[in-house]
C-alpha cells in the first residue's frame, strides 16, 4: 500500500461492509479516493449501506459483479473473513492489484507504537490483560483489532504517547505486506481454520507475517513450549523474549516449579529472569484472577509484553490478581441445585476445549459441536475418558463428537435437533445437560468448533447459552 494521499482520485474497492469495511471506506473517501464498497448480502441486510451512500460512497450489494475489479482499480481492501477464492480477489491477483486487509491500512496511518498479539488460543485474554497492565501503569493504551474495535478507527485516534494493543487473527494478517509492529506476540499455533487456509502451511505463514518486517529494534514474545513458536525464535530478526510453563529459561518468563512436574499440587510462581540472570517474582499461580494452566500461559505472555514497554512488575502482579476474565472465556454464568454453569463459547477448536476441561476440577457435563471443518475430534478422547461424565452435542459436528464420546465409554450422550429455532436448540441442550448433572458437577459450553453453522458469532452462541441458563 502507498501513502494514503496517493489514492486521491484513484479507484479503491472495499470488499465487505461490517465494522472494519465501513471504517476503511470512510478513511479512503476522506482522503479523496473514488471508493466502491461491495457486499454480497442483500441491501436490506446491510444497515451500514445507507450511511456510506449518504457520504457519496458507491455501495453495491447483493452479489460480486463481474466488472467490480478492473485495470483501473488501484487497491482492494477485503474483510478478513472473505476467502481469497472469490472472483473479485482472483481478478485482482490476475491483474497485479494489491489486496490487503484493514490491518495494513491501519499500520500506515498509526502514530502510536503497535503491540500486536496473535495465536490459535489465548490471544483475547492476553490482549485484554496487556491493555489493563499498560492502563494501570499510565501508558494510555488503546485496545482494538479482532477484539472488537475497528483497527483503523483506533489508529486514527492514537497519538505518539499512546500504545495500540491489538489482537490479530490469521485472516487479518494474511492480507498484510509492510505491516511492522514494534512488539509482537505469538501465543501458540494449533491446527484450526483449515476451511479458510486450506493447508496448515498457509495458516502458519499467515500468523508469521506478524514478524516478517520486524528488525533488531523490535521484540518478539514467543511461547517456548510450542513447536511453531520455537522454530520462529531462530528465524526472526527481532529480539526474542520467550515464556514457558514447562521449562526454567535462562532468560524470559516461566513457572517455578514447571507445570507437568510430578509434585502436582505444589505452589507455583510466575517469575521473570532478566538478561543479567536476576529472577524477579511476578505472582503466585493460585493468585491469578482466572483459573487454568492455559491462563498461566496467557499471564506469562501478557507479563512479557508489559515488561517490554516498562510496566513495573508490581503493577503487573496487581492486574493479574484482579482480572476476572473475558466474556465467553470460561465465564461463570450461575448455579442451580449445586450445578455450576460455565460459558466457554470462545473455544472454537479442540485444543481450547481440552485445556478448558483440564482447568476444571469437577466432573463435567459438556455441550459441544458446531461448524464442521473436517476434524475427526479424536484428540478429545482422553479428556472424555478422564473427566467428562456426560455430553450434549449440536451443530454440524454433533455425530462426529458423539462418536468420540461413545468410544470413550460415555453412557450419558445426547444430540439435540438443530433444525428448530436456534435459541430453542440451545435451550434444549442446556436442559439436557442439566438433567445429566449431579450436585457438584459443572455444565460447560465449550464447543471445540466455530459457531457459523448456526450462529453469526461465538458471542451470540454464548449469549444464548447464558439466557438459557438463567431461564432454567
Automatic annotation (TrEMBL):
Superkingdom per UniProt: Bacteria
A GO CC annotation given for this chain: cytoplasm
GO biological process, one term: cell division
Keywords: ATP-binding, Cell cycle, Cell division, Cell shape, Cell wall biogenesis/degradation, Cytoplasm, Ligase, Nucleotide-binding, Peptidoglycan synthesis
UniProt entry tagged with the keyword 4Fe-4S: no
Domain Mur ligase C-terminal span(s) in chain numbering: 328-449
Pfam families found in the cross-reference section: Mur_ligase_C, Mur_ligase_M, MurD-like_N
Domain Mur ligase central: start-end pairs: 117-306
Principal EC category: ligase
InterPro entries in the record: Mur-like_cat_sf, Mur_ligase_C, Mur_ligase_C_dom_sf, Mur_ligase_cen, MurD
Reactions catalysed, as given in the entry: UDP-N-acetyl-alpha-D-muramoyl-L-alanine + D-glutamate + ATP = UDP-N-acetyl-alpha-D-muramoyl-L-alanyl-D-glutamate + ADP + phosphate + H(+)
Pathway where this protein functions: Cell wall biogenesis; peptidoglycan biosynthesis
EC number: 6.3.2.9
Function according to Swiss-Prot or TrEMBL: Cell wall formation. Catalyzes the addition of glutamate to the nucleotide precursor UDP-N-acetylmuramoyl-L-alanine (UMA).
Family, as annotated: Belongs to the MurCDEF family.
Name listed for the protein in its UniProt record: UDP-N-acetylmuramoylalanine--D-glutamate ligase
Taxonomic source organism: Paenibacillus cremeus
Amino acid at each position: 500500500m502507498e501513502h494514503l494521499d496517493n489514492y486521491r482520485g484513484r479507484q479503491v474497492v472495499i470488499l465487505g461492509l461490517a465494522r472494519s469495511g465501513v471504517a476503511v471506506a470512510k478513511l479512503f473517501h476522506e482522503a479523496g479516493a473514488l471508493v466502491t464498497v461491495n457486499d454480497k448480502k442483500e441491501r436490506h441486510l446491510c444497515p451500514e449501506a445507507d450511511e456510506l451512500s449518504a457520504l457519496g460512497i458507491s455501495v453495491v450489494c447483493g452479489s460480486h459483479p463481474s466488472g467490480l475489479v478492473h485495470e483501473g482499480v488501484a487497491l482492494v481492501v477485503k474483510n478478513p473473513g472473505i476467502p481469497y477464492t472469490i472472483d473479485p480477489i482472483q481478478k485482482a491477483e490476475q491483474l497485479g492489484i494489491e489486496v490487503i486487509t484493514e490491518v495494513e491500512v491501519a499500520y500506515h496511518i498509526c502514530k502510536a507504537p503497535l503491540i500486536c498479539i496473535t495465536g490459535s488460543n489465548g490471544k483475547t485474554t492476553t490482549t485484554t490483560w496487556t491493555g489493563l497492565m499498560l492502563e494501570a501503569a499510565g501508558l494510555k493504551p488503546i485496545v482494538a483489532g479482532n477484539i472488537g474495535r475497528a483497527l483503523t478507527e483506533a489508529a486514527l485516534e492514537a497519538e505518539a504517547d499512546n500504545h495500540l494493543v491489538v489482537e490479530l487473527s490469521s485472516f487479518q494478517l494474511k492480507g498484510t505486506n509492510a505491516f511492522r509492529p514494534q512488539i509482537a506476540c505469538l501465543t501458540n499455533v494449533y491446527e484450526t481454520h483449515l476451511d479458510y487456509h486450506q493447508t496448515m502451511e498457509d495458516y502458519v505463514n499467515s500468523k508469521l507475517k506478524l514478524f516478517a518486517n520486524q528488525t533488531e529494534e523490535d521484540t518478539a514474545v514467543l511461547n517456548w513450549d510450542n513447536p511453531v513458536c520455537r522454530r520462529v525464535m531462530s528465524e526472526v530478526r527481532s529480539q526474542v523474549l520467550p515464556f514457558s510453563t514447562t521449562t526454567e529459561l535462562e532468560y524470559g518468563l516461566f513457572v517455578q516449579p514447571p507445570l507437568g512436574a510430578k509434585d502436582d499440587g505444589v505452589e507455583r510462581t510466575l517469575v521473570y529472569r532478566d538478561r543479567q540472570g536476576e529472577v524477579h517474582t511476578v505472582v503466585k499461580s493460585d493468585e491469578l484472577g482466572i483459573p487454568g494452566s492455559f491462563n498461566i500461559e496467557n499471564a506469562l505472555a501478557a507479563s512479557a509484553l508489559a515488561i517490554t514497554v516498562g510496566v513495573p512488575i508490581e503493577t503487573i502482579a496487581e492486574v493479574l490478581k484482579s482480572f476476572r476474565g473475558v466474556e465467553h472465556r470460561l465465564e461463570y454464568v450461575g448455579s442451580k441445585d449445586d450445578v455450576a454453569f460455565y460459558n466457554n463459547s470462545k473455544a472454537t477448536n479442540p485444543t481450547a476445549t481440552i485445556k478448558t476441561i483440564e482447568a476444571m476440577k469437577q466432573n463435567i457435563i459438556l455441550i459441544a459441536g458446531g461448524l464442521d471443518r473436517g476434524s475427526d475430534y479424536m484428540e478429545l478422547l482422553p479428556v472424555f475418558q478422564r473427566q467428562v461424565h456426560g455430553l450434549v452435542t449440536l451443530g454440524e459436528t454433533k455425530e462426529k463428537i458423539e462418536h468420540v464420546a461413545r468410544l470413550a465409554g460415555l453412557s450419558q450422550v445426547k444430540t439435540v435437533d438443530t433444525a428448530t429455532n436456534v435459541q430453542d436448540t440451545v435451550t434444549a441442550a442446556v436442559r439436557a445437560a442439566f438433567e445429566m448433572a449431579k450436585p457438584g458437577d459443572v455444565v460447560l459450553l465449550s464447543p471445540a468448533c466455530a459457531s457459523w453453522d448456526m450462529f453469526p458469532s461465538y458471542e451470540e452462541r454464548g449469549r444464548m447459552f447464558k439466557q438459557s441458563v438463567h431461564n432454567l
